[in-house]
Amino acid sequence: MHIRGDHAGLAVGGRLDVRSAADARTVLHTALDDGVGDLLLDLSELDSWDATGLGVIMGAHRRAGRCGRRLVLRGVPPQMQRLLVATRLHRILAIEGGIGVESLPRV
Q: N or C: which end of the chain has fewer CB within 10 A?
Protein backbone atom coordinates (compact mmCIF):
# COMPACT_ATOMS: atom_id res chain seq x y z
CA MET A 1 0.00 0.00 0.00
CA HIS A 2 1.14 3.54 -0.64
CA ILE A 3 -0.39 6.87 0.37
CA ARG A 4 0.66 10.22 -0.98
CA GLY A 5 -0.72 13.70 -0.46
CA ASP A 6 -1.25 16.16 2.35
CA HIS A 7 -3.86 17.34 4.88
CA ALA A 8 -6.29 18.33 2.09
CA GLY A 9 -6.09 15.29 -0.17
CA LEU A 10 -4.62 11.81 -0.12
CA ALA A 11 -4.35 9.11 -2.78
CA VAL A 12 -4.27 5.48 -1.65
CA GLY A 13 -2.94 2.69 -3.84
CA GLY A 14 -2.28 -1.01 -3.54
CA ARG A 15 -4.00 -3.11 -0.88
CA LEU A 16 -5.62 -1.62 2.22
CA ASP A 17 -5.72 -4.64 4.48
CA VAL A 18 -4.71 -5.95 7.88
CA ARG A 19 -1.00 -5.61 7.03
CA SER A 20 -1.24 -1.95 6.01
CA ALA A 21 -4.06 -0.78 8.30
CA ALA A 22 -1.90 0.68 11.07
CA ASP A 23 0.19 2.78 8.65
CA ALA A 24 -2.90 3.96 6.79
CA ARG A 25 -4.66 4.86 10.04
CA THR A 26 -1.67 6.93 11.18
CA VAL A 27 -1.46 8.86 7.90
CA LEU A 28 -5.22 9.50 7.78
CA HIS A 29 -5.40 10.65 11.40
CA THR A 30 -2.44 12.99 10.96
CA ALA A 31 -3.97 14.50 7.81
CA LEU A 32 -7.31 14.98 9.57
CA ASP A 33 -5.75 16.51 12.68
CA ASP A 34 -3.53 18.92 10.73
CA GLY A 35 -6.01 20.30 8.19
CA VAL A 36 -9.32 22.06 7.81
CA GLY A 37 -12.25 21.49 5.48
CA ASP A 38 -12.89 18.33 3.48
CA LEU A 39 -10.21 15.64 3.25
CA LEU A 40 -10.42 14.14 -0.22
CA LEU A 41 -9.41 10.47 -0.26
CA ASP A 42 -8.74 9.24 -3.80
CA LEU A 43 -9.13 5.46 -4.01
CA SER A 44 -8.79 5.10 -7.78
CA GLU A 45 -5.41 3.32 -7.43
CA LEU A 46 -6.62 0.98 -4.67
CA ASP A 47 -6.52 -2.66 -5.75
CA SER A 48 -8.47 -4.10 -2.84
CA TRP A 49 -9.45 -3.72 0.79
CA ASP A 50 -10.55 -6.14 3.45
CA ALA A 51 -12.73 -5.64 6.51
CA THR A 52 -9.80 -4.10 8.39
CA GLY A 53 -9.21 -1.62 5.57
CA LEU A 54 -12.88 -0.70 5.50
CA GLY A 55 -12.66 -0.21 9.27
CA VAL A 56 -9.80 2.25 8.75
CA ILE A 57 -11.98 4.24 6.34
CA MET A 58 -14.89 4.24 8.79
CA GLY A 59 -12.62 5.26 11.66
CA ALA A 60 -11.27 8.14 9.58
CA HIS A 61 -14.85 9.14 8.75
CA ARG A 62 -15.71 9.30 12.47
CA ARG A 63 -12.50 11.16 13.32
CA ALA A 64 -13.19 13.68 10.55
CA GLY A 65 -16.56 14.42 12.14
CA ARG A 66 -14.96 14.95 15.54
CA CYS A 67 -12.44 17.33 13.90
CA GLY A 68 -15.23 19.32 12.23
CA ARG A 69 -14.16 17.96 8.84
CA ARG A 70 -15.60 15.63 6.28
CA LEU A 71 -13.92 12.63 4.63
CA VAL A 72 -14.86 12.52 0.93
CA LEU A 73 -14.10 9.42 -1.13
CA ARG A 74 -13.19 9.83 -4.79
CA GLY A 75 -12.61 7.23 -7.48
CA VAL A 76 -14.04 4.28 -5.57
CA PRO A 77 -13.41 1.19 -7.74
CA PRO A 78 -16.56 -0.76 -8.79
CA GLN A 79 -15.87 -3.84 -6.64
CA MET A 80 -15.50 -1.60 -3.60
CA GLN A 81 -18.63 0.31 -4.55
CA ARG A 82 -20.53 -2.99 -4.45
CA LEU A 83 -19.22 -3.65 -0.94
CA LEU A 84 -20.26 -0.18 0.23
CA VAL A 85 -23.75 -0.76 -1.19
CA ALA A 86 -24.02 -4.26 0.31
CA THR A 87 -23.08 -2.90 3.75
CA ARG A 88 -25.18 0.26 3.20
CA LEU A 89 -22.15 2.37 4.04
CA HIS A 90 -22.69 4.32 0.81
CA ARG A 91 -25.50 6.05 2.76
CA ILE A 92 -23.11 7.17 5.51
CA LEU A 93 -19.88 8.01 3.69
CA ALA A 94 -19.50 11.07 1.48
CA ILE A 95 -18.68 9.79 -2.01
CA GLU A 96 -17.84 12.26 -4.73
CA GLY A 97 -20.43 11.84 -7.49
CA GLY A 98 -22.30 9.27 -5.41
CA ILE A 99 -22.69 5.64 -6.35
CA GLY A 100 -25.04 4.71 -9.16
CA VAL A 101 -26.43 1.59 -7.50
CA GLU A 102 -28.44 0.62 -10.56
CA SER A 103 -25.34 0.72 -12.78
CA LEU A 104 -23.31 -1.70 -10.65
CA PRO A 105 -23.09 -5.23 -12.04
CA ARG A 106 -24.87 -7.86 -10.01
CA VAL A 107 -22.71 -10.44 -8.27
A: C
